[in-house]
Amino acid sequence: MATTSKEQLPKKNRGKVKRKMVKIFERNRSAQGGLNYLETAITHSPTSIVITDAEGRIEYVNPKFCEVTGYSVEEAIGQNPQILKSDLHPDEFYKDMWETIASGKVWRSEFQNKKKNGDLYWEMASIAPIFDDDGSIIKYIAIKEEITDKKEIERKLKLSEEKYRKIFDHFEDLYFQTNMRGIIFALSPSVVPLTGYNIEELIGTSVLDVYHNPKDKRRFLRTILTEKHVTNYELKLVRKDGVILDVFISARIEYDADGKPEFISGIIHDFTELKRTQDELEKLIEEMQLHREEVDKRAFEINRLNIRLSESEENLKQLNATKDKFFSIIAHDLRGPFSGFIGLSELMEQEYENLDSKAIAQISKSMSKSAKKLYNLLENLLEWSKAQMSRIELELVTLDLYDFAKRISGLFLETALQKNIDLTVDIKRDTFIIADSNILNTILRNLISNALKFTPENGEITVSAIANGEMIQISVSDTGIGMSADDIKKLFRIDVHHTTIGTSQEKGTGLGLILCKDFVDKCGGEIWVESEPGKGSTFIFTLPKG
Q1: For the sheet containing 174-178, what is the strand order?
Q2: Which residues are CB-neighbours of 233 under 8 A, at least 6 positions away?
Q3: Is-contact 437 395, C-beta < 8 A?
Q4: Quick one: residue 135, left, alpha or beta (phi over 0 = left, psi -120 to 50 = alpha)?
Q5: Helices and strands (H and E) in the chain: how many
Q6: DSSP category for residue 502
Q7: For residues 139 and 28, what is the distance between their CA atoms, to the nearest angstrom?
Q8: Of 188, 182, 252, whose CA–CA distance to 217 is shortest?
Q9: I need a labelling partner for 8 at 20 to 30 A (CA). Which of 26, 61, 131, 194 fits?
Q10: DSSP assignment letter at 211
């Protein structure tokens, strides 16, 4: 047996042996130090570390494992990792894992486990085999990071993306995004029915290519670059089939994190049919003015025919009331504002050079106010006409009442600011109802408009909602002039002509509340009002819960 004593070794070999022993000692001491560092790192690791034998029995767990799972070291040692198994993954999932690591490969995946107290959690794990000097697997080591919060965030993001994708996909107006040179890179699906082009046909092309008037190209681009945004900018576009569209464009420049212009986003609203209807209505009014006698005669004949065809006195009364309301609006409520509008425009045309900027601004303000009133009246009249002819087809869907009410209220913020009225929406998020979106739009728009009309300066208007059984009770409350019990009885009736002058001398037709009642009835709800003179009014209606 070989020995290394000084007495038995030749003197010339003693130094060599001594140096070798020193190297072995230093290597052992270095290895021991490395092990200490490794043990410290594993103990304080922010991830769970599990070591098992070749059969899968746990031999070691670090403190993070105990913190995450709730099992102590003593409870975990000797157990199979299946004590953490949840019921989410199929047997094939675990079979694939064992086949992978048993073949000497590293397995990586995320999976759901169960803590000692039964709580479920998610982990991202890497499991690798440990080999001996002969290449045989003697142990497995698993390094696992808990990702439960990350998975929950991903789930919520996915739900949010799906929610807004549905809204985007069903958006009736056309949403677009272009670079600063007008090259399109994003469009909503509504581009197909609006323009006749597929999305693929327009992506990468200039949005200016579909303008009808070449002058509009330069004018719009110059305006958006100067003003940074435009609202209800009127233009004409050309469909793929050559049809000319009248549209409103609202657009703005979007900026990056450094405040540099990045792209232009906007919405295109098609009002071709509305403009056509306006033109036809104006023509009709003109013809009625020229042939009033003939119109009166035809009205009498229609009335006599309705009387003969009517099956009951109540039906006849309702039919006559509807006719009277229609002609009252056409003969007075439409004709009057149109006359005022025409008079103002003629004054501008004839006296333009003699008017100062203040007078022009005042006339323009009056014309704008008159135009908006005509537009709202016309919109109600068209909706009411369709309802009377039973041409409205309900499309009942689940709507987010909070988002809907915020959007409609936003349309009236400028009017509210002019009267210094606090217009608020007090509705809980995720309050869902079942209704037709166009009908709900008309109801809320009319009720908020009325509240603004009859609320003096520095007042308050609140849109709120509460659950009431299977229905949602929606209220529009104001601190306005209120009304008497007798006036309340006259509301919602086509056979009674009742209007009240607003706090800023606003005039109405009474048609809005009639529309509201018709539409609420169609959606399966009810509408009523609670009010006292000088104490404001609360209009309440119900719709099915979503």
Answers
A1: 184-187, 174-178, 261-270, 244-255, 229-238
A2: 220, 223, 248, 249, 250, 251
A3: yes
A4: left
A5: 18, 17
A6: -
A7: 24
A8: 182
A9: 26
A10: B
